[in-house]
Design goal:
Blueprint: E1 2-5, E2 11-12, H1 26-39, E3 43-46, H2 57-60, E4 63-64, H3 67-75, E5 82-85, E6 88-89, H4 95-108, E7 113-118, H5 123-129, H6 136-150, E8 158-159, E9 164-165, E10 181-183, H7 188-197, E11 200-201, H8 208-219, H9 222-226, E12 232-236, H10 246-262, E13 266-269, H11 276-294
Parallel strand pairs: 1-13, 3-5, 5-7, 6-7, 7-10, 10-11, 11-12, 12-13
Antiparallel strand pairs: 2-4, 8-9
Length: 295
């Protein structure tokens, strides 16, 4: 089981943010990325929202760095760690736009991109951007097929219900023709879609008990039985712990065992921290004390 990071600073969520990140920016972000890269963490994350309606901000938060710009910046400071969009709202983009823009990122980072995508739930933002909300599910599935057909291909072609393209060139394109595509969400349907269309499931906001029930239910379904390719369960730690603290560190080790038994391949860590130095110390503690005991 490997460890990824739900990266602080780039998103500030009211439920689990730390006050020090309010004034943090690129310098602090680089220190986090360089440390995580050195310690062997699997990925960093960056979420996508274009514009949060003011009434929604107390629930969803208002800060969301742009993933493309953020990862392009961090790619220049790192060499191994991967970059996960956590998640792109697929309905906001044409699949060819993602294939071109994120394909360029994949190329300049040396093939370190993971595309996390989601169907989207914020109706006000769909309206603001002129995107279709009512039939977003069917559009999402067609866009997933189109994105799979387009990414990493200089001369892509696709004919589907909502997207059709041929006789076009996308240059540069991604270096990964089979870029990992992880589907976000928090419902059994999102897991079924991930098994059908993606390479992994990257949910959010679910407890370990909810995850255990959903994964058990999915294992009994035909989508799981039909699956022949490797599939990543990229699951979120459901509580904030400080691995610098001995008690919290022991609790995290025990919790990691539970996630491992569930079949988790990559654990998305969101840590409790009170400063940049404390966060960096926490990264060291996980790499030194937690990861070796949960391998």
């Amino acid at each position: 089981m490997r460890f990824g990071l739900v990266t602080p600073i780039v998103t500030r969520h009211p439920e689990h943010d730390a006050t020090w990140t309010a004034d943090a920016g690129p310098d602090e972000l680089v220190r986090i990325a360089v440390t995580a890269d050195r310690l062997g963490y699997h990925h960093l994350t960056c979420s996508e929202h274009v514009a949060i309606p003011t009434p929604v901000a107390p629930v969803r938060g208002s800060r969301y760095y742009d993933p493309l710009a953020t990862f392009g910046f961090l790619a220049a400071h790192t060499s191994r760690i991967r970059f996960l969009t956590h998640v792109l709202v697929l309905g906001y983009h044409h699949p060819l736009a993602i294939a071109k823009r994120y394909g360029t990122l994949d190329r300049i980072s040396g093939g370190r991109l993971i595309l996390g995508v989601g169907v989207g739930t914020l109706a006000e933002e769909f309206t603001l951007l002129g995107a279709q909300f009512a039939d977003r599910g069917s559009r999402y599935e067609d866009a997933l097929r189109a994105l799979r057909a387009a990414f990493g291909r200089r001369a892509p072609s696709y004919r589907g219900a909502y997207h059709r393209f041929e006789d076009v060139l996308v240059d540069p394109c991604g270096v990964q023709e089979e870029v990992p595509i992880w589907l976000g969400g928090r419902t059994p349907r999102s897991l079924r879609r991930a098994l059908t269309f993606g390479d992994g499931w990257d949910p959010f906001g679910l407890s370990i008990e909810q995850l255990e029930a959903m994964v058990a239910g999915a294992r009994a379904r035909p989508e799981w039985e039909r699956r022949r390719q490797p599939f990543d369960l990229v699951l979120p730690v459901d509580r904030l712990l400080d691995p610098v603290d001995a008690g919290d560190r022991a609790a995290l080790v025990d919790l990691c065992g539970r996630y491992r038994d569930l079949g988790t391949t990559i654990l998305n860590l969101r840590l409790r921290h009170r400063s940049l130095e404390h966060y960096l110390e926490a990264l060291e503690a996980v790499a030194r004390e937690v990861a070796p005991r949960t391998a």
